[in-house]
C-alpha cells in the first residue's frame, strides 16, 4: 500500500468521490481528511481525485493518484 503525503492535513477528499466503502476506508487509513463537498461535482462524478497541497490530482484510482503525487514530489528540487 502507498503511504499518504507528508502532511495529511493538506490532503483532502470529497465525501462523495469514493465509489465504495473500501475506497473510503483506504483513504481514512492513509490519514486523508474527508470534507463535505469540495465544489468539483463534474470531476467527482467522472473520475477519482484528491486535493493534495491545494492542488487537485486526478486518476483512475487512488493508488494511481498517490503514485503520481509521489513521482512529482521526487522530481521537484529541494528548497534552498
What does this structure look like?
This protein has 80 residues and is α+β, with helices and mostly antiparallel strands. The protein has one domain (8-74). Helix content is 36%, strand content 21%. The protein contains 3 helices and 4 strands; from the N terminus they run βαβαββα. The chain is globular, with a radius of gyration of 12 Å.
Index terms:
80 residues, alpha+beta, four-stranded mixed beta sheet, 3 helices, 4 strands, 36% helix, globular, disordered N terminus
What does the secondary structure layout of this molecule look like, with pairings?
Blueprint (H helix, E strand, L loop, with lengths): L10 E4 L6 H9 L3 E3 L5 H6 L1 E5 L2 E5 L2 H14 L5
Parallel strand pairs: 1-2
Antiparallel strand pairs: 1-3, 3-4
